[in-house]
Amino acid sequence: MQNKEVMLNTHRMVRSATAGSAGEPYCGLIVGALWQTPTWQAMTVADMEAFWDEASKSDLTVAEFISLKQKEFA
After folding, report:
1. Cβ contacts of 47-54, under 8 Å, gap ≥ 24
2. Do 42 and 51 touch, CB atoms closer than 8 A?
3. Alpha-carbon gap, residue 58 to 50, rounded angstroms
4. Which one, 4, 47, 49, 63, has the greatest CB density within 10 A?
């Protein structure tokens, strides 16, 4: 069996990209871009829940959301 790479559409709206079963690879993409920042590493469970709640209501694309958070977390 071949392992197929999942092609993610970073122009997809982050609120729909993080919802349901389709959200898993997008959430992984977002976490992968942010997890090494001091802000991410200091987050509590409540902070993370607020983060994903914000994503679920955002009008940004996945790429825009990641870029915004990278600037905020820098």
Report:
1. 52/18, 52/27
2. no
3. 12
4. 63
Handedness of CA 25, 74, 46, 16 (dihedral sign): negative
Compute the distance between CA of residue 64 and CA of residue 51 in angstroms, rounded to an integer.
15
List, for residues 25-63, the tens digit of each pLDDT value: 999 999 999 999 999 999 999 999 999 999 999 999 999
The 3 state secondary structure assigned to 33-63 is: HHCCCHHHHCCCHHHHHHHHHHHHHCCCEHH
From the number of C-beta atoms within 10 Å of its C-beta (0-12, 13-18, 19+), residue 40 rates as middle
d(CA 58, CA 49): 14
Q: Are 11 and 60 in contact (CB under 8 A)?
A: no
